[in-house]
Write a structure and sequence with these properties.
Strand content of chain A: 5-15%
Number of domains of chain A: 1
Radius of gyration of chain A: 19 Å
Order of helices and strands of chain A: HHHHEEHHH
Structural class of chain A: mainly alpha
Oligomer: homodimer
Strand order of the largest sheet of chain A: 1-2
Largest interface: A-B, 62 and 63 residues
Largest sheet of chain A: 2 strands, antiparallel
Shape of chain A: elongated
CATH topology of chain A: Arc Repressor Mutant, subunit A
Chain lengths: 156, 156
DNA sequence: CCCGATTACCTCGCTCAGCGAGATAATCGA
DNA sequence: TCGATTATCTCGCTGAGCGAGGTAATCGGG
């Protein structure tokens, strides 16, 4: 049980750290999350489009456009029209964004890796199982747990 | 290394789940975080004041007042003047807020506890060490990563 | 090959969360 | 008692994100 609270504390702390880092670099939390999503996609060799990014962050198209505008204005990414399907706008991350990601995650990752050095294979596996399980548990618990049963969600 | 990414994925997923749940209940992410902070404080037998809550969420006084206004209007908490120091406004959480917290965290906690049932003591300890380490690692990594050190603000 | 449907993104107007500055009220210290 | 400090609130403003609707490109049936 205390592990649950500990996990929540970790997510809260990471959240605050992210928000603080974002503010310090003239970004908003959403901007930072967008950069992370972009870097993730880049690392996975995936081409991320504007719409896809918005969907991943839970923004609608208008908000996504504004987000991409901001990031482009700051030089973190460039809009690139897909030559195959010229309706699509691919997002190309700039070196600047990569550097920012490094600056934010670098120390955190380094510390975590140092910590993990002290873990045996079985312990690492335990951590992995735990995180995987929580991730999957967080998939769709909200659907079942809506506090307002009578209220019509999907206000669209 | 993959554990790091896994952790990030977990926090992202929990974040999105929270935002979705909040929106579904007519709240904003900040409101939900405020409720969580309030419930945490209540569970710890701590009396949370308006200013303290704002500080914990990274809001300034104006934003905090607006936040408390919203939550009070929704009936999630009540303002209670501290009788000892009548400048202070204590925040009393309502049953409604508790129920909301249960609705959100209940299933998540249940699933996590079920998962943890399959863990041995050593494994749980590994998870605990990992989470504790990450929490501490997230304390102040941003300071080192930017040219702009934050000024101390002694959060009591 | 054309035309309607669909897809992907953008524009416009708006709401409201959160900020900075400053006001107000209560407490504390000399 | 009076100024300094603390805790909160008020006011005006900026801007992130939403809903609605527009535009350009692609797809699919006749």
């Amino acid at each position: 049980m205390d592990l649950v609270h500990l996990l929540r504390e970790v997510t809260l702390r990471l959240d605050l750290a992210g928000a603080e880092f974002a503010a310090r670099n003239g970004l908003h939390p959403t901007d930072l999350r967008a950069l992370i999503a972009l870097l993730d996609a880049a690392r996975a060799g995936e081409e991320l489009t504007a719409g896809r990014l918005g969907g991943r962050l839970g923004l609608n198209s208008a908000g996504t456009t504004a987000l991409v505008d901001r990031l482009e204005r700051l030089g973190h990414l460039r809009r690139v029209r897909d030559t195959r399907d010229r309706r699509r706008v691919l997002l190309a991350v700039d070196e600047r964004a990569v550097a920012l990601g490094q600056a934010f995650f670098g120390p955190l990752i380094a510390r975590t890796l140092t910590l993990l050095d002290t873990f045996g294979p079985g312990e690492r596996d335990a951590v992995r199982r735990f995180l995987t399980g929580v991730r999957d548990a967080a998939q769709a618990p909200a659907e079942a747990a809506t506090g307002t049963p009578a209220e019509a969600d999907t206000p669209s």
